[in-house]
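Hello Y.,

Per our agreement to keep a running log of every chain we model this quarter, I'm adding this entry. I've kept the format consistent with earlier entries: sequence first, then predicted structure.
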Amino acid sequence: MKKQPGERGAGEAGTGNDGPTSLRIVIPEPHSMVGLLGSRDELLQVIEEAFESDIHVRGNEITVTGPAAEAAVIGELFEELTRLLATGTEVTADVVERSVAMLRRKSGARPAEVLTLDILSTRGRTIRPKTLNQKRYVDAIDNHTIVFAIGPAGTGKTYLAMAKAVKALQAKEVNRIILTRPAVEAGERLGFLPGTLYEKIDPYLRPLYDALHDMVDPDSIPRLLAAGTIEIAPLAYMRGRSLNDSFIILDEAQNTSAEQMKMFLTRLGFGSRIVVTGDVTQVDLPSGQVSGLRVVQDVLDGVPDVYFSRLTAHDVVRHKLVADIVDAYARYDAARAAAEGDRLPANRARRDAGRNR
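Predicted structure for the entry above:
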C-alpha cells in the first residue's frame, strides 16, 4: 500500500496525537476494490459501522477522516485486508469483523497471518483458526505433547483439535485417532439404558461423530472405525490401556473426576499426543464432586511439554449472540460470587455477636 508524499501512512496516523486527522490510502492496482469493499459496498458498510471516522472511496483511493488513533487502525485494517486478497483469501464480513477485533486489542498479531493458516482442506472448504487465541492453540498442538483447551462453548476447541488429528493421520504422523468423552449423564454405568451398547453410548459421542463427518469422507468412516484407525469410545473404556502412535482427544473434560483425569493422562504412549478440551463453567458432575479439569490446572502447572490454551468469549465462532451470552453469564457469576463473599463476613459477625451476648 502506497504512502503519498506529505501524508501519513497507516502506521503513522495518530502517533502522539488523538486529534482529528486525514489519512489517504492507495490500494495497489492489481487488487480488486470489489473484493476489498464488497459488490455493493457491503464490506465497506461493516467497516463504517465499526468506526466513527468518515471513510470516502474514490477509485482505488480511500480517505479516512477522524480521530488520529482510529485512523491508524483503519489504515492497518485496509493493509491487512489487502494482504488477505493477495493470498487468494476471500474477504467476508466475518473476516473484516475479526480483523478489526484483533487490531483493536493491539496484541501484535497480524490478521493476515492468523486468518490464512490452513489446518485442513476437505470437501471443498478449508478449516482455519479465526482468532489469535485459536492460532496459538493450534500452534501449541504442533509444539507440545499434551495440550489443554479451556474455554466456553463455540470457541472451536473440539473442532480444531479434530482437524489437527485428521491432518496428522493423513500425514502419517500417527496411526490412529482416538476420540473419547465422559458419559457423565449416565454415570458411565450404561446398563440401565435400553438397547445395545452402541445405542447406549451413541448420544454421548454423537458430537464427535458430527465433527468427524465434516472432515472425513462419510463413506470411509465405517471402514476406518472397523479397522480401528478411528476409535470413538466413552472415557471408561480407556482404563488399563497404553495408547501408542495415536492422536487422542478427550472432549467435555470438565465432566471428569480428578481420578479419571489422572487415569486418562497416564494412558499416553510413545509417539502419541493428547488434546483435552472442556469448559469449567459447564460442569455436570454430581454436587460436591470437583472437576478433574479444574484440578489438573494446578497439578500440571509448569510441567514441561504441557500447554494450557485459554479461550474466551472473543474466540466464539458461532452466532454473534453466543459471545454475548457467554459474557452475560460471566458477569452474572462474578456478581453472584461477590455477593456471596459479602454475605459470609456479615453472617460470621452475627454469629460472633450472638456468642458474646
